[in-house]
Amino acid sequence: MNCLIITDRNWDNIPLIKKYISYLNENFRVHAFYNIMIQCISRYCFNYGIDIIRHCLSKNFYEDLKKRISYSDFCFIFTDFIEYNTLSRVTIDICDISNVPYFIFSNNNSNFLYNGEYGNQKFKKYIKNLHKIQKPIKLIDVEKENLQLNNDKKIIDYDSIRRKLKDNYDFLKYKKQTRSIIII
């Protein structure tokens, strides 16, 4: 079975990742995108004898993500829901629409969410039942207007930014000097 692991950029709860990767056995294959946590995920997969496949996101990240979800049996999503329009939010939307099972792990609560609802069983039972519940996966496009992540980078004119910043600092310095108390 294939498992896609997605983490937020600010995710720092490494023991939680280790805990849930430990429930997977050698029959699973983990897919993960390159980010800050890829080294920890690969180390834990190596320790538990799980194959890991690393992927990168190109400028067309939406198509890359759809392709990875299309051959994933389920997803692990580590997020705190602090930021909007992140990769984890897009993954949740695609999994909801496409009928792909997903688990959301958060620092906000000790339990996990299974397909957007609190799990009422043990995590091991969900993993065992995933073999039986194979649902047809249909990938449907999510609204692309919600997907403006950090990949929409415009050409930045650093000279004008430096000039504006210098002008603002000069203006603030002038204001401080004019408002300061002068001792005679």
Question: What would your notes on this structure say?
Answer:
The protein has helices spanning 14-21, 38-47, 61-70, 87-98, 123-129, 158-179, and strands spanning 2-7, 29-33, 51-55, 74-78, 102-105, 112-114, 117-118. The longest helix is centred in the last third of the chain and has 22 residues, at 158-179. It has a seven-stranded mixed sheet with strand order 3-2-1-4-5-6-7, sandwiched between helices. It contains six helices and seven strands. It has one domain: Rossmann fold (3-Layer(aba) Sandwich). The chain has 184 residues and is α/β, with parallel strands linked by helices.
Summarize the structure in short.
By secondary structure, the protein is α/β, with parallel strands linked by helices. It contains six helices and seven strands.
Layout of helices and strands:
Blueprint: E1 2-7, H1 14-21, E2 29-33, H2 38-47, E3 51-55, H3 61-70, E4 74-78, H4 87-98, E5 102-105, E6 112-114, E7 117-118, H5 123-129, H6 158-179
Parallel strand pairs: 1-2, 1-4, 2-3, 4-5
Antiparallel strand pairs: 5-6, 6-7
Helix pairs in contact: 1-2
